[in-house]
Amino acid sequence: MTRPIVETPDMSIPLPDGTTLSARVWMPRDAAAQPVPAILEFLPYRKRDGTAARDARNHPWFAQNGYAAIRVDMRGCGDSEGLFDDEYSETEMRDCEAVIAWIAAQPWCTGKLGMIGISWGGFNGLQLAARRPEPLKAVVTICSSADRYADDIHYKGGCLLGENIGWASTVLSWFSSAPDPEIVGDRWRDMWIERLENTPFLARTWHEHQHYDDYWKHGSVCEDWSSIEAAVLTVGGWHDGYRDTISKLVSNLDAPVKGIVGPWNHKYPHMAVPGPRIGFLQEALRWWDRWLKDEETGVEDDPAYTAWLMDSVAPDIGLEHRPGRWVTEAEWPSPRIEAREMPLGFGTLYARDPAPFPQIAAPSTAVGMGTGEFFPFGFGPGELPDDQRGDDALSACFDGAPVAETTDIVGAPRIALRVATDQPKAQLAVRLCDLRPDGTSALITMGVFNLRHREGREQPVAMPVGETVDIAFDLDQIAYRLPEGHRLRIAVSTSYWPFIWPEAAPVTATISGGALTLPVRPTAQGDERRFPEPEAAPELPQRAHGERQEDKRIETDVTTGETRITISGTVPPTEDLTHGLVTSSRMEEVWSIRKGDPASANVDMTWERSTGRGDWQTRTVTRTRLWADAEHFHIVQRLEAYEGKRMVFHRDFQDSVARL
What are the DSSP E strand ranges found in 356-426? Predict the structure, then answer.
């Protein structure tokens, strides 16, 4: 039986230094008389507008089921006081500890608390659990990371992700909007200008730390798995950039932990695509009821690891539903997974007598156009991987024979290569593809690797030019059914633009041996677990004044050899009918590179964001550009703020960061 609830749009939470944070709170109407546990989501993304639509579906539902659901704007964000400094900073951690202590001490709270969040909120839930504040008993972490260097939006396999600068551009825009005068009163302008004046140059910071160092170790719970004692439910999706985290947490935590991986993108599982969606809130409620209310809900008996085993489908960049079935493992890693080694031959995979080597992965700046986004979450069209044949044609490929029986791949395939390069700085991208009978090449999973990290990711070691070395690394976790008659392909390239930023000089890799180790599970006969249909609270009442527009174009100038990827999107003015705030945004990204010249890689990004109500109108415009030469990354950003039509602030950021 659900309970009547009350909402407080702005609850003030004091911090020890005198700063006040703003929280939106939902709780049962009788919580003062019958205290309840609390569920905290601690984010920088503006509860008033940024996450309002999502919050309206999630938090009231938890409140109706007997919890105080608390969505807090972090310091310097949304309607909270203070100044923002960086992702997952020590200030953020201490603030959140103070918020947890304050919530636990309230008369409407039992003193027990859980943290929930996707992405940033999933990160800091784990990070706070590692700091062990006494009230924090459980965490539900979605699409998050336990390793800020290996599994975040900045670097992957030691390679600089294109999304590193994309995220720096997005953050500069998102965090530049003004607080709402209806919440903070007449001081809104002073708060806004102070924030703008103190905006951190994060694009520079994130490019400065190119290898695993203390900056990334801070907030990476993989540094000490034993530090987490709270119960952890970890959830993610195969079409999300953070998909490896679920396996890592389930494999390494000593605390109670369960993992669920669906076919989803970077969204909550009851809102995500590709489907099927699940009743995620009901699953989270089972977790809360067990660890915050000591009720027997059976979660301890759930499988350690549950995954959506995806069927083979033709590549579709806008796929809405992914056929498949749920498979489960009672323990993870599972003793039922067979490590099947498949040696590489000359253009072949799993040949009985590998043909003589070597095979050449020639340099090409065009490889990577079919990869889709590292981070699919609805910012533009064409986010999922396309047909891989275009990228395959520019890669060194090793093809297997048609498989004699259906093969279920569950886990992280591992690639081992004997390789020599003609440059001391080199990267490899390795893709595992499904060669389908219809002629298409579908991406199963992939991985990238900085060859200078072959002896460790803290102290890079240059490749000895022309000398053969042995390297090995894991591809991303996956659950994929390869049907009888399909073939596997390993495709190797020395660039993968714009997924990773290229080395300054073209690289040729000479491959003289290797093997793919494939994690093969006994063939599933059907669903091994079922989830309820999604439930949620009613949608936020909104009115859009126009249509959302999205576009993605890839164009090549045959005269200059330049290829340009242009991604654009517009969200029309959208009114929150509960308080009248109207927001809109527009973005454009232009990625360019010239054939045969990786040093020509360049990206320009623009964001425009408006927030207003009646005569009160504010707008920010940000521009970001990144390019590089052999020695440096060059970063330029500009931030402009407008009140009405009048520019009230502008600031330029510019620096060059040495390529290490």
Answer: 359-361, 396-399, 407-411, 414-421
- Same-domain status, 262 and 386: no
Q: What is the DSSP letter of 302?
A: S
Pairing of strands 36-43, 68-73: parallel
Residues 583, 591, 618: CA angle, nearest 5 degrees: 20
Judge contact between 131 and 234, C-beta under 8 A: no
Question: What mean pLDDT, rounded, does the chain reach?
Answer: 97
Do residue 134 and residue 265 come from a single domain?
A: yes
Cα–Cα nearest to 574, from 547, 545, 549, 610: 545
Fill in the amino acid letter for 262.
G
Pairing status of strand 549-556 against strand 478-482: unpaired
- pLDDT tens digits, 109-140: 999 999 999 999 999 999 999 999 999 999 99
Nearest by Cα to 326 from 302, 312, 303, 309:
309
pTM over 0.85: yes
CATH of the domain at 270: 3.40.50.1820
**What is the residue-wise DSSP string for 635-652?**
EEEEEEEEETTEEEEEEE
- Is residue 610 one of the residues assigned to a domain? yes
DSSP-based three-state secondary structure for 468: coil
pLDDT digits (tens, 9 = 90+) for 173-188: 999 999 999 999 999 9
Residues 437 and 559 in one domain: no
Give domain status of residue 293, yes or no.
yes
Beta strands 414-421 and 597-613, pairing class: unpaired
- Find the domain containing 275 and state its range: 5-158+211-300
Helices (H), 231-348: 245-252, 280-293
Q: Which two tokens stand for residue 631?
A: 């020695």
Query: How many structural domains comprise the chain?
Result: 3
Separation CA 421–CA 466 (nearest Å)? 6
Regarding whether 116 and 26 lie in a shared domain, the answer is yes
The 10s digit of each residue's pLDDT in 364-398 is: 999 999 988 887 776 556 789 999 999 999 999 99
